[in-house]
Amino acid sequence: MDLPALRESLAALAAHAVELARRNGADQAEAGASHDEGLSVTVRMGDIESVERQRDRGLAVTVYRGKQKGSASTSDFSPASVEATVRKALSIASFTAPDEYAGLADARLMAVDPPDLELYFPWELDVDRAAELALRAESAARAYDPRIENSEGATVSTGGGHRAYANSHGFVGGYPTSSHSISVSVVAKDGSLERDYWYTVSREPEALETPEAVGEQAAKRALARLGARQIKTQTVPVIYPAELARGLFGHLVAAIRGTAQYRRASFLLGARGERIFPEFVDIEEDPHLRRALASAPFDGEGVATKRRDLVRRGVLEGYVLSSYSARRLGLETTGNAGGAHNLIVRPTAGPLEELIAGCDRAFVVGELLGQGVNIVTGDYSRGAAGFWVERGAIVHAVNEVTVAGNLREMFARIQAIGSDVDIRGGIRCGSVLIDALTVAGQ
Q1: How large is the average pLDDT for residues 318-334?
Q2: DSSP-assigned letter for residue 269
């Protein structure tokens, strides 16, 4: 991938589409152009199972004529196709109902000299090398213990691309990104069969865990689940390990997203300024973390991103807004068109092991099954498997239970946030201890 040439051509394409829209009668216009390439190789039981190559590109154009909006897209970058796409967007706009909230984000909010956040690290990986790494990961898992009887496969993936955005405010910007990963899933057998997995993911290939480390961790996790038993229904402290705890804060984001707020479909409706967590909980959004998986110098509307406190001393400081949802709420965009950027949940305690050691009895979640989350009411009911804790130590695995509660109450009952922060995603947090949830079993 010739990155400088690609960057220039995509930016020029997006800007040209905006110019065409304006010349043909649009009051405002925006366009996004993208090009992505990737490779994914999966092995299973020592043999290559699949090889997938990705090469995608696209142009999306949105126009505003008055308060009418129209959008169209194409994967054909030829001049004739670009012009036809613009005309299609304009035609669609002529049929849509006026929406007083429609339009670009304010020009004064556009990013100026956006920072280079170091989000692109190419990995020169061919099929043979990817297969070798995947085989090493799977072999390490299978060799770890004779009870690792089967494999669901090991996958090595690499991908990168560039996105450019332009609008009729004169904004033109873009930046490249990359993502690389290794994952393994295996099955352990000792009377029963138990499956588990592990993975590593990063912008830069050098930051990935070794294939052997990923394979061994997948094996350890599968082995730990052997001998699982059911437990009686009871109310006990529940611990979410870091890789699952991020889901709790994902539900927070869903509830404070602008669309949920203006549709009045959130259990945190109008909750800005309210204490929804204990006073020790702080959550910040930092879009400018270098090399992080959810960093962005500007959002999907060209609005400059910036660090902010989302929750401070337990109080919700704001929502997650695009310009459209902000107008619906009488507020200003928070630079979140396209989603939240690197939510950082500050630790208040030691790692998972210390949280376990501090509990007389508790349930440690190992896996969550099904959906079972109602963002409108906050009702939470998830099938689960995991581990039973007595006197500060795990005594056996648990299966076929349901963890139930209400998210608003669950947030208020958080007792500790661990220091074992998982950075493999857009929400960075450690393990979370909630003091009392219903764990339904026998």
Answers
A1: 98
A2: T
DSSP state of 108: G
Residues 6+ apart with CB under 8 A from 357: 392, 393
In the 8-state DSSP scheme, what is residue 67? T
Q: What is the token pair recorded at 93? A: 């706009």
Predicted model pTM: 0.95
Residues 6+ apart with CB under 8 A from 16: 82
CA distance 187 to 203: 29
Q: What is the per-residue pLDDT across 89-115, written as a single tens digit (0 to 9) for each? A: 999 999 999 999 999 999 999 999 999
- Residue 98 has what DSSP assignment? P
Q: What is the 3-state secondary structure (H, E, C) of 305-372?
A: CCCEEEEECCEECCCECCHHHHHHHCCCCCCCCCCCCCEEECCCCCCHHHHHHCCCEEEEEEEEECCC
Residue with tokens 């390439």: 37
- Distance CA(282)–CA(311), nearest Å, equals 5
CB distance 401 to 429 below 8 Å: no
Two tokens, residue 145: 């213990």
In the block, tokens 């799977």 appear at 138
Q: Is the four-CA dihedral 189, 191, 195, 200 of positive or negative sign? A: negative
**Contact status, residue 228 vs residue 399, Cβ threshold 8 Å:** yes
pLDDT, tens digit, for every residue of 127-159?
999 999 999 999 999 999 999 999 999 999 999
154-179 CB burial, b ≥16 within 10 A, e <16: bbbbbbbbbbbbbbbbebbbbbbbbb
8 A C-beta contact, residue 164 and residue 14: yes
Measure the CA–CA gap between 14 and 61, rounded to whole angstroms.
8
For the chain, how big is the Rg over CA atoms in Å? 24
Distances (CA, A) of 349 to 109, 258, 344, 375: 38, 32, 15, 28
